[in-house]
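Self-study notes.
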Amino acid sequence: MSGRRDFLSMPAPENYVAGLGRGATGFTTRSDLGPAREGPSEEQMKEMLAKRAASLGQAAPSAYGVVEKKEEERDEEEDRFQDPDNEVGLFSSGMNYDKEDDEADRIYQDVDEKMDKRRRIRREAREQKERDEYEKNNPKIQLQFADLKRALGNVSEEEWALLPEVGDMTGRAKRTRESRLATSRMYAVPDSVIQAAASSGEIQTSISTSDAEGTMTNFASIGAAHKSALQVRLDSAANTGSASSGEQTTTSGTATSVDPRGYITALDRKQQTGEEVPVEDINRARVLLESAVKTNVHNGPGYVALARLEEMAGKNHTAKRILAQACQMCPKSITVWVEAIRLNRENLQNAKIIAAAGIKENPKAIKLWMDAIDLEQTPAARKKVTRQALDRNPQSEELWKILINDTEEIESVKLLFGKAVQTLPMSEELWISYARVSGPEEAPKILNAARKAIPTSWSIWIQACRLQEQLGRVETCDKVMERAVKALIKEGGMPSREEWIKQAEICDEEESVVTAGAIIKATIGWKLDEDDERKTQWLEDAKNSSAHGRYATARAILSYAVSIFPYSTTVWHAAADLEKHHGSTEALLQILERAVSCCPKSESLWLLYAREMWQAGDAEGARKVLGRSFVELEGNENLYTRAVDFEVDAENYDQARQFLQIARESAATDRIYSKSAVLERQLGDYETALDICNQGIQMWPGTWKLHAIKGQIYESLSKLPEAEQAYATGTRSAPNAPVLYILLSRIQERAGAVVKARSTLDRGRQKNPKTASLLCEAVRLERRQGNIPAAQNVMAAALQECPTSGVLWTEKIMHLESRTQRKPRALEAIKKVEKDALLFVVVARIFWAERRLDKAATWFTKAVVLDPDFGDAWVWYWKFLEMHGTEEKKGEVLSRVATAEPKHGELWQAVAKDPKNFRKSTEDILKMAAKKAE
């Protein structure tokens, strides 16, 4: 045994610290309850480390194995980990608050609260709006069905009783499987099957299906039995409820709650359209409807739906059996009895028995009684059943009507009506029908009795007014309707103004014109104050009635409006327009005579009166009307020009010249001078025409039309330099007239000065920027010179200035685009311009070129309907009809163009304003322009 002492019992060396060699030292924390052992000082640690390093022959390290830091670095290290609770410097006085600091904090807090209060309303409103928007986009389930829940309050007890029970679908597949396993049976394999399996390897040429004393199995019988068992199991699965539900019918993969009224709607729709209903759909519907009926045996509509399904499937006998069962299970269901009667109608005796049984169960069912009446074949039998029905249901208006209609003797009819109105005194229809079948002496008494029985009925008052009209007492109709209005207002049964207008239109349709007028006169101003826009409202009402084809009603409305606003030219024009299109010439002239008497200072009414008088064939009367208008509107140039037109149409050229001479002396205007120059030019007196133009230019140098007429006269005389000088003078005197620049450029082009013509158009474009006619003429100038690239450049710039010009788009599509690109460009043009008759013509011409004649005719029609005053549309339409139209269509177009009397369009004006075509009719101008169209 060694004499060495135990290490653990040896005293520790001086300054020994456990774990010091591993760098461990003692430390204390603030959470210690008592003082911890104080660790060695820094000097002790240095000394210990130095001794250990000397024993190892190494340099003396620092306390943590690194070289000592410099003094500055040590100071920074100490400042870096300084306690934030003992801050110095800038934050040294952070905890020294005084009263002023507290007051400042309180003031800032008050300001913050006040600002928050000011913004609170807007913030809350914004938050509420955001919340509402979120709830609107993300509604709760209960909100989505809120309206359906409210609608449940209107469900009657009978409807509640007809609702099927809710099926228990929980674990249905599992219960179905368990039920199937529970009802399944296990059978031992017979010896014959084993023997047959053993001999399966033998080669046989036939299989015997006969029994041989138990040694052979009849496989045909087994297959049939297997099929029968499978069918039974399928029927059981479809019709038998599970043990857990007890009452609920279950079917695999389908819901048991069936709407019997609407389920076979799709099948009915297929049957109506002639489409054959698939057998699978019928079988599926049969299963579901049978389930619904068995779930609720008192569900009448379910039986009806199932019966109709069987009828659709061709099983009428099954349908009748189902309805017979339904009549027993649902004896109070009217629908079931009605359907049973309908299905058995081919056998009247059975149908009558069913009807009698249904009536016995439901003696108040009017529908059953009406079906029973329809089953009778003779009038006497019908009356007998009807009287029985009335004994049970004396308040049924339908039964009274049937009985009265089946009665032929007029006296008996009157007696029945008397009994009916006594039983049903509130039936307006019975009272009115009673009055109609009665004589002229009895009818007023009956209507008075009806009015007393139903004081709020306006139909009775209308019938009374119509009765007066039928008796020839037209003067009393207005009084009857005035009394009606007063009585209805007193009783609180006055209908709305719109309803009265509707009743007036009904009377108008039934040719009770006087009654319609009396209704309008008494009620058209109902609830319209004097400060309201009554005139506008009445004009709108008349327009609507005219659109409905009720012209007498519209005439009555305008007549009343004229009586209230006798000095309104708008109302007079509306009345005259109605008579012109839907009245007689005599009525139109009477209206215009009253109009000019009430509005003698209306130029438009005088002109319209004179025109209609002239078109009526009364030339002398038209002259007298113009003479009266000269007295009322002295010096009016429009009256003079109209008088000149009349005389020219009558070929009284001397009288027309005389009128123009008087106008130039008493009512001299530039228009009068232009009209005079044009007339002289058309009559071939060029010297006089030039003299008038010069006189007019001296007085009105800025009138471009005088310069244009002067230049055109020189062109007619083949004096091109004088014409050019006249146009040039016009461009200087009237620089804002594009027509003069166009005429001047064409004269210069004819003279061979193309550069000069181009310069003239450029000057015109500078004076009149964004003018489509000048831009189009510049394009045409380049195109006529054969410079297509320059024309395309000018067109590009032109469309930049006038992107919505139909003239420019037409020029581009028809002359600067290839045939394959015309249709896309036309579509682009229509999108930008929207409605332009010229572009519609372009589209029609494109379809015409493609031989799509129906579409071409459609677009031509659109063009002439959109702008009947645009003559070029009529021209191209006529050119199209000449090649592909019928004689009937041509006659229609000629009639329409004569009525429209177009005035605009390049082709149209070029022909119409040519002096050679003076006195040509509209039809002649149309045909001549069609020949020039290219």
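Second protein, same conventions, sequence then structure:
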Amino acid sequence: MDMHTVVVGTSKTTAEDVVAVARHGARVELSAAAVEALAAARLIVDALAAAPEPVYGVSTGFGALASRHISPELRGRLQRNIVRSHAAGMGPRVEREVVRALMFLRLKTVASGHTGVRPEVAQTMADLLNAGITPVVHEYGSLGCSGDLAPLSHCALALMGEGDAEGPDGTVRPAGELLAAHGITPVELREKEGLALLNGTDGMLGMLVLALADLKNLYTSADITAALTLEALLGTDRVLAPELHAIRPHPGQGVSADNMLRVLAGSGLTGHHQDAAPRVQDAYSVRCAPQVNGAGRDTLDYAAVVADRELASSVDNPVVLPDGRVESNGNFHGAPVGYVLDFLAIVAADLGSICERRTDRLLDKNRSHGLPPFLADDAGVDSGLMIAQYTQAALVSEMKRLAAPASVDSIPSSAMQEDHVSMGWSAARKLRTAVDNLARIVAVELYAATRAVELRAADGLTPAPASRAAVDALRAAGAEGPGPDRFLAPDLAAADTFVREGRLVAAVEPVTGPLA
């Protein structure tokens, strides 16, 4: 595990903090300010618990059962029961990095001092993260409103030493055994604490932050593959001139055009569009790459703004205010996050679609301007990359299905008390699948474009230095170049790993300088 430490409560939690803890195993510490805030808020909750007046979440039931006043001797049981009853998830296990993200984000909110949780509960949350103990969370159980209830409840259950969890060695065991093995004492929940541990947008927000990190890499990678395809098709880079993009000043469009132009610098392949098979303009999938990629980039920027706002939020119901009030609210509603999760699935699908169209153009001898059919060695005897494009098309088709928004749906719950929900968790789950698919789609275009560039080089046309660097790095990663047909799946898998690990971007940046 990475020994980098993220301190909670000293300053605003960043997206980089979330990725560091969730994906790279960074340690978590509570700041002294966080401990003070936790203790101060707990004094308020304890005072309200001792008062005769009922307070939601402190001395009442929950949801549609909020009208019942709970006597002091039953309140510990009440908090345990909400965790046990709400840990009702079903289906496959959610990925470890997602569970760590939602645990960390819940800790971030708890540490704000607006939830009324005791400092020792927050410390136990940090202890689980630092020990590499990951509660078993299931795919289904959140409507994205009143928080990601079932997923967070499974995490709270592990804090109590109940349910199942995965240890740092990857083995799933009873959570109580794992806590004991790491010297962690299970928490005994008191007033409000069970509710506070499961009432937030942490799962959907964690998946949004992780998706943004992945999509940033994939959009830069797609700029590179679009440039390689333009080059392989003997297209013109004149459409990338900065003055053309300045007169339609969408920021992302200008960034993508600049990325492509820098990849193509020094190419001996561009500018031949009026040679043997004259054409005035390149096809839309080539010529409009900056516009499509750039619109997606602008969408990522907006989604990042929403994520930053949510990272600065304390999502709970009720919340403890500095003046001593404990107030009910609707901040747990996941609509702001759900909308951008769906928006990202739409732009990811369209990016995948334009990548596939360029790949198909590279493989079609009637549109590839002199390249062999399917980039095959001996067309007819060899099928070349014919079926690689089939795989890519299947992935694009699924991307379009995943682009259907989840956030327009709502099914009432809790006896109609919770009568409009966000479905943000569902939006996040399908976006994760979409991001995985997009990496594979970009990888297929990369594999086809590098083969086409090498075939052009065999004809005496010299690719750009950055293109050559991309080809060489991909070949070193195990994806072979032109030649007779061979078992293709391993090459495509190598290209997929190469793209999703950011190695394509890393390969060209020594030539181009840092790409956005």
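Instructor comment on the second fold: Residues 424-458 form the longest helix (35 residues).
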